[in-house]
Amino acid sequence: MSDAQITRLREEIATCTRLLVMQGIMDFSGHVSARIPGTDRVLIQPRDTSRAAITADDILVVDIDGKVLEGKGPAPAETALHTCVYRARPDALTVCHGHPTISTLFSVVDRPLLAVRNFAYRFADEVPIHPDTTHIRTDEQGRAMMQTLGTHGVCLLRAHGTVVVSRSMQELFMDCLDFEENARSLLYATALGALLPLNPEEVSALRASYGRSDYRAGKLWQHYIHKGRTVGVL
After folding, report:
1. Considering Cα of 7, then 43, then 128, then 147, what sign does the dihedral take?
2. Within a 10 A sphere around the Cβ of 144, how many other Cβ atoms?
3. Contact 168, 94 (CB under 8 A)
4. Closest C-alpha among 210, 169, 159 to residue 19
């Protein structure tokens, strides 16, 4: 990967992080990372830098063991959460760990996080919940989390937050927003009465329909970049 491409990836991490703060998916904590394609190196934000002010120049390079190779400041305490995903999932190119309020609530109630919005067909399979309520600081904890995540694109951490895994920064941002919005919609729908979540036939049809709209992640990304610039986030 060229230096220009790595610089672009740094910029995408910073942009994604700021936009997730704007949308309430991330707060003063949480982190976005990206694998440098073709390597065992990972780009990730520092532990202490404000997520609302992060820039491309702040981004660290760490190895697959979480050791800082480039950049200033310590890596996040939960860097193992990211590196263990990259070790176990060759398909994973981006990871987000955040603390979105609504979806996290579904990790502490006896109620599944069902798909009730059409874009949530991607989450129609049972959303796994990892039982460790503490921070994922060690490789042992990271490997245990991976047993829960498996091949899913997202899992909940009990009373803690989410882990979202994707193939690009734009898709990661879309998945983070869609997952929380579906949880919010489910919360509202449950209050209205008898729930009618997406059924398997609808999920199958939606998968085919959205498969013809592979531009959605880019469209959503551009919309929120413009929104972020308008309100001074970017």
Report:
1. positive
2. 16
3. yes
4. 169
DSSP readout, the chain?
Answer: --HHHHHHHHHHHHHHHHHHHHTTS--SS-EEEEE-TTSSEEEE--SSS-TTT--GGG-EEEETT--EEESSSPPPTTHHHHHHHHHH-TT--EEEEE--HHHHHTTSSSS-----SGGGGGG-SPPPEE---S---SHHHHHHHHHHHTT-SEEEETTTEEEEEESSHHHHHHHHHHHHHHHHHHHHHHHHSS--PPPHHHHHHHHHHHHT-TTHHHHHHHHHHHHHHHTT--
Q: Which residues, at least 6 apart from 107, have a Cβ–Cβ distance to it below 8 Å?
A: 129, 156, 157, 158, 159, 160
Question: Domain extents for the chain?
Answer: 3-224
> What is the Cα–Cα distance from 232 to 225, expressed in whole angstroms?
10
- Encoded amino acid at 220, one letter: L
Q: pLDDT, tens digit, for every residue of 25-81?
A: 999 999 999 999 999 999 999 999 999 999 999 999 999 999 999 999 899 999 999
For residue 63, count other CB atoms closer than 10 A to its CB: 13
Report the pLDDT value the prediction gives residue 175, as an integer from 0 to 100. 97
* Residue 196 pLDDT: 96
Architecture in CATH for domain 3-224: 3-Layer(aba) Sandwich (3.40)
Mean pLDDT throughout 188-205?
95
